[in-house]
Automatic annotation (TrEMBL):
This is S-layer homology domain-containing protein. Keywords: Signal. InterPro entries: Cell_Envelope_Struct_Comp (IPR051465), SLH_dom (IPR001119). Residues 31-94, 109-166 form the SLH domain.
Amino acid sequence: MYTKLLKSITSLSLIGGALLYTNGSDVKAAEVGVFSDVPTSHWSYPAIKDLASKNIISGYGNGIFGFGDVATREQVAALIYRVLVPNKQGGSFSNDGTRYVLKDGSTFKNPYGDINQSSTMFPEEVLTLTNLGVFKGDENGQFRPKASVSRAEMAQILTNAFHLAA
């Protein structure tokens, strides 16, 4: 199952599959039947359907997946987080923004100048994966949550996330 799941994630990530929350709530393929913008004859359809049924990916809302859209760094973080950490805790930033405090009291240092409650929908995901060594900031200490992910970056992210031989 892990291999199949990894192949599905890799396929979707490399083709730039989009995953977003709509107003903080997931819209799953199982809830909307089928994403209206994903052709059932497309080679990625089974992977999209499978990952949506496992609550790993979601769409924009109104049954739209965002088929063919480019994935952003924050979206990739959310996708990988849902695989590695299936139960999101929720939390908030410290008053000075240098730490993210989870509901269980755990804290993560926020090393990024551009990650805060208003810059990303996925601060817990980004900072958890940074703490696990999956993500690193750029040379300026920025995460760039809205930037698209290059194929080279995706290769490094997957290698880090799943401890693949580099």
